[in-house]
Amino acid sequence: MKKRVGALVAITGAVSTAIVAFPQSAAAQTDASPYGFSVQVSLSPKALQKLTTLSESVAVNSFYYGKSATKPTRADIKRAHAEGREPDQIEMAGDLVTLPAAGGVAGLPGRNLDATEVAAVGSNPLRVNVNVFSARKAAQDNLLDCDLFEDELQLARAKPVIIGCRLIGER
């Protein structure tokens, strides 16, 4: 009996590790925050065929940022230059959602934002950058050339962000 319990614990641990290691699907991410929004991803017929043939997925990644409400200090400026970013820009984590090869709607909940970083932006608009690419589960390199979105979060929340994708090199 102890062997079975031990095996069950090992299996449960492996499943828990797998769940943490991989991003949730769009359908599993249902708790929206004040920073959440949706992205509608569509693929060209050639891109859809290639991804389906390879059993590849589509990844949707968001990145939030905003201008600091306070003037940066000399130390802030020096650190920002070393990190390759603007001294007055606050960069924040975003979401990574995986869609099936056919694309579809990705719900980006915005749950990973740090309240301190959001507060540091103050009344300046919070901005978001959205990138879409092949998930690299079946192919080592990205296969998709997708539209980009980079604008105020308020605009992204107003209606779904539309991103079109085609194969890299497709005309």
Tell me what the structure shows.
The chain has one domain (23-167). It contains five helices and nine strands. It has helices spanning 2-21, 45-54, 74-83, 115-121, 153-158; strands spanning 37-43, 58-67, 89-92, 96-99, 104-108, 127-134, 144-146, 149-152, 161-167. Strands 2, 3, 4, 6 and 8 form a five-stranded antiparallel sheet that branches. Strands 5-1-9-7 form a four-stranded mixed sheet. The N and C termini lie far apart (62 Å). Mean pLDDT is 83; it is low at 1-30. Residues 1-28 form the signal peptide. Keywords: Signal.
Task: Please describe the topology of this protein.
Elements: H1 2-21, E1 37-43, H2 45-54, E2 58-67, H3 74-83, E3 89-92, E4 96-99, E5 104-108, H4 115-121, E6 127-134, E7 144-146, E8 149-152, H5 153-158, E9 161-167
Keywords: Signal
Signal peptide: 1-28
Category by helix and strand content: alpha+beta
Give a short account of the largest sheet.
5 strands, antiparallel
End-to-end separation:
62 Å
Shape: elongated
Number of strands: 9
- What's the helix count? 5
What's the helical proportion of residues?
Answer: 25-40%
Q: Could you tell me the radius of gyration in angstroms?
A: 19 Å
Sequence stretches where pLDDT stays below 50 over 5 or more residues: 1-30
Give the integer mean of the pLDDT values: 83
- What is the number of independent domains? 1
Q: Looking at the chains present, what oligomeric state does this protein adopt?
A: single chain
Question: What are the secondary-structure elements, in order, as H or E?
Answer: HEHEHEEEHEEEHE
Proportion of β residues?
A: 25-35%
